Amino acid sequence: MPHRIPLKELVDLVPPTHESARFRYFEPWTETPFDPARRVLTLSNAGWLMEAALLAYSPPRQASRIFGRFRPKPVRVEYFQNARRDVECYLLVTRAAVIVVFRGSEVLRPDRWRSTRDAIEDFESVLLDWTGNAKVPFVPVRPHSRRRAHRGFLASFDSVWPELAARLETLHARSPGRRFWFTGHSLGGAMATLAADRFGRGTLVTFGAPRVGDAHFAATFRNPAWRVVNNSDIVVWVPPPWLGGYKHVGRSWLIAANGDLLADPSWFRELHDFAHGHLEQVRGLLRGRLDAIALECFYDHSPLLYARQLRAASAKHPKRPGG
Q: What is the bridge-based pairing of β-strands 213-214 and 97-102?
């Protein structure tokens, strides 16, 4: 078996907006429902959360319907949005947990274009997301705080947090035993990091997420946290530490070049896999593989590939961090 399930078409670099025979959400995980009580990240929990993060890229009506397949089945699926900052978030409310899922960076959606105006609005939405991503300088996470975070991420997060926080506090007050989980892919992972930090309780799991804050922010981040990294994904390396001291929070899982899941790999192992992925890309180009045209570091950032890699890991029973 090859070390990865390759994307068959370059269009798969864009998150799917509908299901097909090639991909049905949550299908491999139904025999092991999401377990909110686990104190460590398991492969099945990671699979549920990654596919929820992938589904968050879909239109709300479709996403809300498919979220109904999540197990345990949500009693409610709630949607929060700040259109001006282009932030979207879903709450999956079950009897035992609240799962907060943030959508990642907006991408172009030609399949939704019905007019020139649709195309222009789509470009504006993508531009707004990446303009926010480009605001690199630090700002305090709260007035007068010594903890600092990425200015663009924080501005986007604060645009939706007051309404979301009020709802989370209500859900906690009504059922104090509920567990809270925060997740997202890419920019969604950055939003989930800030939300878990601000809420002050719950577990964080991100996929292909950038660094969010400085070393003091990371050192004082108290929530249990895991970040899943797929081989050569470039986004997890930005913003770079030398640009003000950015640092990741929590523990890491690496989806290695051979498909294994490695817990807390050394920076040397992460760098080795980063280089190995690019070597594989060069080999693919020499063999005439068209899918190798995509730069490996962007290819590995695809949320669809994250979901497929976790499915492949489950199917072939590799090393499983966290049990």
A: unpaired
